[in-house]
């Protein structure tokens, strides 16, 4: 069975599958009668999978992410996370943004501890975990630096550590490295793959870069704008771990062409 | 760590700044002394009437006499300082308090904003005689006038700072399930701190103006009274000496506020930020040490 069914391929999974962590049926988000940000999207996302959402501006990919995060409410349809309807932000779901959104008055490790503080008292175990996570994202020795003392790439690493500190198993990443230069982005993408593999998370990754979307993901959800629609879900068959050289293979380029065709047809 | 390139002064920068510092001070001093010298001559040879512009040496003599021998100036200084500081504290607390309420509650903001604007466009110093009529002749009306004219910068700056929160940061907090109270104390308030401090710096000078204008209108003590007394007696050298003392006092208050800003808004001052970073590392050392053992 295909893990994900788009609205073009009629969704057939009516029974509850414990392996499905995010499930949407005819999900609609309209900001008013004229602006339909997301039009009848149906899909299922399997536990532990890495799913990219790719498409041009206005295709509803960020809207879809915010719906799953519980930051905005749906207009119609169904959306469930871990079998429950989404009614607001949940501790099971963590989100990371294009900008690091660090608090400039806090050190790196204090920024990482923010999710713990919001949820209640901070213990020494939490503090140690925050230090470990900073090491995991490659920021050992920068625990006590303030955001202004860190480069853009390093700031995003702190944001990633903060996301992992939430303990959430479903990670929503909204163009997390989109504001960084190409080299930094590539390196962080590779590290992201290593890290999410480590923590065994389900990832929804928004990007407008087709190669990046394919390189990272098990499935690519291709979205088209006005109104935002889920046009097709493309399976990515490449084995893991992946190397950058994968991007030069003919199979990879064939997939890029396929996604480009879907996007171009709209 | 390679933090030195990120916003911290390197040793060579510091050395260069020091090298030019002596030269800069010498140039400023030379200019100042030159102006004083011209003034001294102009006054001595009566190019300008010494009644209008007394000689700098005469002003200095009055100043020394006032500060070292007469001694009553300390009492008046204390009165004015107390009025200014009390006016500043009351005005700031009211300003910041109203701004917090307005920042957290949209309808409250809509209700009070016409009155705040009316109060802002009114030359509030014109309210001084009314305030004195209400509160009498002691220190209270001067404090009230100071509070009245200084409350606006803290108010508007706090409100601006609270409302000017990065939308992504706000969403980040919400995605963590943060409550409104947590968003206020952990995001909105620290985010507004730099601009609140800027408002307070303006407010302290305004409170001093309020206190002195209050004393001009009706008082028996304070630097404003001293100023009027000397001017009416055409003792211009002493009037200018009072002005010098007020300048020093205003500057001292300003420096105090700068220091508070440096202390509270440490993340906007490179040297303080580096010091904080070191302090935090020290505070965590125990935890990290135990871990390694």
TrEMBL record, chain A:
All copies of domain ABC transporter, residue ranges: 22-250
Gene3D superfamilies in the cross-refs: P-loop containing nucleotide triphosphate hydrolases
SUPFAM superfamilies: P-loop containing nucleoside triphosphate hydrolases (SSF52540)
Name of this chain's protein: ABC transporter ATP-binding protein
Keyword Ribonucleoprotein part of the UniProt annotation: no
Keywords from the named record: ATP-binding, Nucleotide-binding, Transport
GO molecular function (one): ATP binding
Keyword ATP-binding recorded: yes
Lineage: Bacteria, Pseudomonadati, Pseudomonadota, Alphaproteobacteria, Hyphomicrobiales
Recorded family membership: Belongs to the ABC transporter superfamily.
Signal peptide positions (record): none
From TrEMBL, chain B:
Keyword NAD applies: no
Taxonomic lineage of the native organism: Bacteria, Pseudomonadati, Pseudomonadota, Alphaproteobacteria, Hyphomicrobiales
Assigned protein family: Belongs to the binding-protein-dependent transport system permease family.
Protein name in the entry: ABC transporter permease
Gene3D superfamilies: MetI-like
Organism: Ancylobacter defluvii
Subcellular location: Cell membrane
Regions that span the bilayer: 29-48, 60-79, 85-104, 116-137, 143-163, 184-212, 232-256
Chief localisation class: membrane
GO biological process, one term: transmembrane transport
Cross-referenced SUPFAM superfamilies: MetI-like (SSF161098)
Key words, A-Z: Cell membrane, Membrane, Transmembrane, Transmembrane helix, Transport
GO cellular component: plasma membrane
Residues covered by the ABC transmembrane type-1 domain: 77-257
UniProt topology in membrane: Multi-pass membrane protein
Pfam families: BPD_transp_1
InterPro entries: MetI-like, MetI-like_sf
Top-rank lineage group of the source organism: Bacteria
